[in-house]
Sequence to fold (119 residues):
Amino acid sequence: MLDSLAGTATAGTLYGIGVGPGDARYLTLRAAGLVQAVDVVAYFAKIGSPGNARRIVAPLLAEGRAEMRLEYPVTDEVPADSLEYQQKIGAFYRQTADALATVLRQGKSVGLLAEGDPF
Fold:
């Protein structure tokens, strides 16, 4: 029944999936359905961390699920207003956009997890 209520994922489409407030049981039907329907689940994570959004949806992910871990090069180790931070985070987001675009051009659907509102 979840499939019919939540809908399906369309090939070559990027979905922003909000997964707050921190428990898979509180996801909307559409968000839960997309997590299970997309070809690739993408999520951001701090170095050495599993990623909060990924942790939240873990109960919804089947074994062997295609995932794209997007690991921040810096978080709070360097002040956000420093040139080093700006350069590293800017390059990271450009590389992330390129990686996502490559997967989408292959005709795969991608669900990009966000801890709160994906917009």
Q: What stands out?
A: The longest strand covers residues 40-45. The two ends are 28 Å apart (CA to CA). The mean pLDDT is 92.
